[in-house]
Design goal:
Elements (H helix, E strand, L loop, with lengths): L1 H5 L7 H15 L7 H6 L7 H24 L1 H8 L3 H19 L2 H4 L5 H25 L24 H13 L3 H25 L2 H12 L5 H12 L1 H13 L27 H16 L15 H18 L9 H7 L3 H4 L5 H16 L2 H32 L3 H29 L4 H19 L11 E2 L32 E3 L4 E3 L9 E6 L4 E6 L10 E3 L10 H16 L2 H10 L6 H17 L1 H11 L2 E7 L2 E8 L1 H43 L2 H10 L3 H7 L1
Parallel strand pairs: 1-3
Antiparallel strand pairs: 2-3, 2-6, 4-5, 5-6, 7-8
Subcellular location: Cell membrane
Organism: Macaca fascicularis (Crab-eating macaque)
Protein name: Solute carrier organic anion transporter family member
Length: 710
């Protein structure tokens, strides 16, 4: 059971393939590969399982980096292509669609294919999907941050000013861009990204399960847990690297490969700034492609480490006797009876056709779902995974909007604080289970304690945040679309375009205007400083005493709160991750021995379908409901310009709190059931006859209570 415990609960399908391969090898090929392999393949460097572990660690690191990179640049992609948070959440969840649709067949095909080569093909597909994600950047026109024509090199100069004679043509020009060609191009760009995300998921299907099973088949039995632990530790750095890469790339301007002649007047702090999101996909795709090369040289099978013939015999011994000694199995059959009576999907899968495989799957699925402990633990993990998926997808955007920080800084903070805390939580949870020798009741208690503490430290998050900016004509507005009568009457003569966006700030009153035109400004002044130039707009009829206004959004007075906020989030994440290993152990101990392998696969499927796929869409929809000003593109809602910060915080953190509460309830029910079973087992034992008690002592003192309470 060692390798299973070391691997994350959401990535379980590797286990069916591992045991299938091992069982088949024991039955069908007791020594067929023993004699030729050692001499024939010893000279080749690729007949070395240690090299495979190294290559697979690097590949999974690169794969998680490319799949996590979109989350780090989600707000940038929204701004660049005019997407709502609901649409971007759907885009993220499409990564799971292709993966979930095909993962069921891994256990069927696992023993019939050239696994390293299949991993290589999958990695190449992932790299191509990463390249496809960059295509929208190259087929789109250069980014225009004020909806002006390419001829207007200083894009935010005359187009945003209060000039009645030129404003009407500007408005008709803006609406004139809405041709059927423009709409078709927008749909094709979004469609390309959805296809690329689906292919990213499809390419990832063979990588993890086949890699884990290959390592476990050809590593020495005692080395396998160590190799999988190393693999897990290296792989977990992938998302952190993705956010670090995002932090670097988003400091560069999006059109760095085709900058306008006059340069750009934007700074990274400008709300219209769009970073080079596509460059990260190029780098990550190149990393995956390089990591895929060695897989085409690894053999289909290689000599086992040290004891080739004994390894396959030991697999059944490891899954039978130590599992019983560690109280991992509720089955009361002897090893021989257990092997004969195993009719789980894993044992019969190699002998079935694809159609028969699909037909038998629902029956075994329902059989596994009848275990109450299994069902409740999986439901609690669904709640935790929903929380994690929403947080990983939209936390960068939330920090960016709530605390008025740049996307680059938000990614840097998350990469340095949140992901290391997740790793620490998982490791500490595993150490506690091992050091304290926790049984099922102990595992349930640890899970409940971790989630209660996580819930407690989530409460202050509702009160740490920044108030919404005062936006002239928008802050007290009820409808989603701005109406001219809601703006001050002083700017009505300006005929400002409704879809303009070039925010300016009145430093004396800290009121923000969406364009200089909405502030009634008619001229622009540029003051050159040593390091950068500051743009001011003057002659502003809507500003008190006609004070000049500064280009850019008003600075937030509480941006410093982002660090304590994220420290609390990271602490909560670490406490939630304490439950990872003990909850996984409860799943392994809460079902019959012959159903364990399939239970892990079913758990993986439920997490994908019920958590990782819908959660980003749910969080994105919740974020959209807090928007107070939408940018309009051809009459449709595009990207949100301004949010109600209090509503945004309450709904985003509230959704997280809801999922955490669901997890606490499930773990509390698990602990209650386990304690009741434990009580019944002790009562039954105390009433048993002395002869039976003596028999129990002979067969194993602590076995009966543990088996009964599971």
């Amino acid at each position: 059971e060692g390798p299973r415990q070391l691997w994350p609960a959401g990535e379980g399908p590797q286990v069916p393939d591992k045991e299938t391969k091992a069982t088949m090898g024991t039955e069908n090929t007791p020594g067929g590969k023993a004699s030729p392999d050692p001499q024939d393949v010893r000279p080749s460097v690729f007949h070395n399982i240690k090299l495979f572990v190294l290559c697979h660690s690097l590949l999974q690191l690169a794969q998680l980096m490319i799949s996590g990179y979109l989350k780090s640049s989600i707000s940038t992609v929204e701004k660049r292509f005019g997407l709502s948070s609901q649409t971007s959440g759907l885009l993220v969840s499409f990564n799971e669609v292709g993966n979930t649709a095909l993962i069921v067949f891994v256990s069927y095909f696992g023993s019939r294919v050239h696994r390293p080569r299949m991993i290589g093909y999958g990695a190449i597909l992932v790299a191509l999907a990463g390249l496809l994600m960059t295509l929208p950047h190259f087929i789109s026109e250069p980014y225009r941050y004020d909806n002006t024509s390419p001829e207007d090199m200083p894009q935010d100069f005359k187009a945003s000013l209060c000039l009645p004679t030129t404003s009407a043509p500007a408005r008709t020009h803006s609406n004139g861009n809405c041709s059927s060609y423009t709409e078709t191009r927008h749909l094709s760009v979004v469609g390309i990204m959805f296809v690329a995300q689906t292919l990213l998921g499809v390419g990832g299907v063979p990588i993890q399960p086949f890699g884990i099973s290959y390592i476990d088949d050809f590593a020495h039995n005692s080395n396998s847990p160590l190799y999988l632990g190393i693999l897990f530790a290296v792989t977990m750095m992938g998302p952190g690297l993705a956010f670090g890469l995002g932090s670097l790339m988003l400091r560069l301007y999006v059109d760095i490969n085709q900058m306008p002649e006059g340069g750009i007047s934007l700074t990274i702090k400008d709300p219209r700034w769009v970073g080079a999101w596509w460059l990260g996909f190029l780098i990550a795709a190149g990393s995956v492609a390089l990591a895929a090369i060695p897989y085409f040289f690894f053999p289909k099978e290689m000599p086992k480490e040290k004891h080739e013939l004994q390894f396959r015999r030991k697999v059944l011994a490891v899954t039978d006797s130590p599992a019983r000694k560690d109280k991992d199995s509720p089955s009361k059959q002897s090893p021989g009876e257990s092997t004969k009576k195993q009719d789980g999907l894993v044992q019969i899968a190699p002998n079935l056709t694809v159609i028969q495989f699909i037909k038998v799957f629902p029956r075994v699925l329902l059989q596994t779902l009848r275990h109450p402990i299994f069902l409740l633990v999986v439901l609690s993990q669904v709640c935790l995974s929903s929380m994690a998926a929403g947080m990983a997808t939209f936390l960068p955007k939330f920090l960016e909007r709530q605390f008025s920080i740049t996307a680059s800084y938000a990614n840097l903070l998350i990469g340095c604080l949140s992901f290391p805390s997740v790793i620490v939580g998982i490791v500490v949870g595993g150490v506690l289970v091992k050091r304290l020798h926790l049984g099922p009741v102990g595992c349930g208690a640890l899970c409940l304690l971790g989630m209660l503490l996580c819930l407690f430290f989530s409460l202050p998050l509702f009160f740490i945040g920044c108030p919404s900016h005062q936006i002239a004509g928008i802050t007290h507005q009820t409808s989603a679309q701005p109406r001219p009568e809601l703006f001050p009457s002083c700017m009505e003569v300006c005929s400002c375009p409704s879809d303009g966006f070039n925010p300016v700030c009145d430093p004396s009153t800290r009121v923000e205007y969406i364009t200089p035109c909405h502030a009634g400004c008619s001229s622009q002044v540029v003051q050159d400083a040593l390091d950068k130039s500051q743009v001011f707009y003057t002659n502003c009829s809507c500003v008190a005493e006609g004070n000049p206004v500064m280009a850019g959004s008003c600075d937030s007075t509480c941006s410093h709160l982002v660090v304590p906020f994220l420290l609390l989030v990271s602490l909560g994440s670490a406490l939630a991750c304490l439950t990872h290993t003990p909850s996984f152990m409860l799943i392994l101990r809460g079902v019959k021995k012959e159903d364990k392998t399939l239970a892990v696969g079913i758990q993986f499927m439920f997490l994908r379908i019920l958590a990782w796929m819908p959660s980003p869409v749910i969080h994105g929809s919740a974020i959209d409901t807090t928007c107070v000003h939408w940018a309009l593109s051809c009459g449709r809602r595009a990207v949100c310009r301004y949010y109600n910060n209090d509503l945004l915080r309450n709904r985003f953190i509230g959704l997280q709190f809801f999922f955490k509460t669901g997890s606490v309830i499930c773990f509390a029910l698990v602990l209650a059931i386990l304690r009741q079973q434990d009580k019944e087992a002790r009562t039954k034992e105390s009433r048993s006859s002395p002869a039976v008690a003596q028999q129990l002592l002979v067969s194993g003192p602590g076995k009966k209570p543990e088996d009964s309470r599971v």
